[in-house]
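Backbone shape codes:
===
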Amino acid sequence: MRLHQRFARLIAASGPISIAHYMAEANARYYDSRDPLGSAGDFTTAPEISQIYGELIGLWLADLWTRAGRPARVHYVELGPGRGTLARDALGAGRQFGFVPTVNLVEPSRALRAVQHARIADATWHDDLSTLPDDAPLLIVGSEFLDALPVHHLVLTAAGWRERRVGLAGDKLVPVAGTRPMDAAVPATHADAGLGAIIETCPAAAAVVGEVARRLAQQGGAALLIDYGHVTPRYGSTLQAVRAHRQVDPFAHPGDADLTAHVDFSVLPAVAAAAGARWMGTVDQGAFLRALGLAARVEALCRAAPASANAIRAAAHRLAAPEAMGELFKVIALGSPDWPTGAGF
């Protein structure tokens, strides 16, 4: 049965469901049933745009590991590793400097695990963070992982704040305001909100960052999380759906389109600090990649493959230019209190 039909039956029987319920179940079905990446899929992520992206992240990890004293045992962890492209490129770059960690991939999708195994055969796979090894420092990478976690919406109606939910209009799934008052859940800082204002939150992202921070505080290591989002709080829904490389109605194709929302980076430093980790900082992706040597790596690749120079430069521009991914995407880093600060922060 198509997920749209299942949702329609559930809503007809029990009433509207939360945005978070809708997003979580839709993305679980979507990712478990396909490889969504590349020109034949629905979207393209940064690691698939250019090998430079993964290579520079690998060098960041190797440099940090070296300055931390080159611990003999360390675990590489990737959250939502896609096709395994980032892990392959990062580990390949780090290997040149003696950085050879065990590899742990957090990936519940059976379809994507099969693709990843072809590129990173010696990895250990995990459904979530709870089964990660606890015997050595962790170096954690999450690229475009937090944006796929389910969000909650509150909307200001004439009757007060209500949860924004998914209901039915005929046979269509549509956003609707719930009936339960939610005013007590809204901080006084939102007293100036206008009618129709939407507050979007992602408790799941806070939970992930909190668990990562707790692990780092206990085991040592660092985490690098990269995603699109904003660093100051704002109103409005950022829920979006992509299908066949085009934005579509996020309520039209549940289970057959990629659902994401912008990450609110403003709330995450406090989450990390409360769990005992040190927040290294938040920077734009473009600035981060340039600080790691993007320009030099581009020129080296162009010299090695002059026939591909235009494509190499175009990919680097897409990753780092302000009008492309360079400013919309943010890079955050956190680490154990006794580990050094990573390059670029």
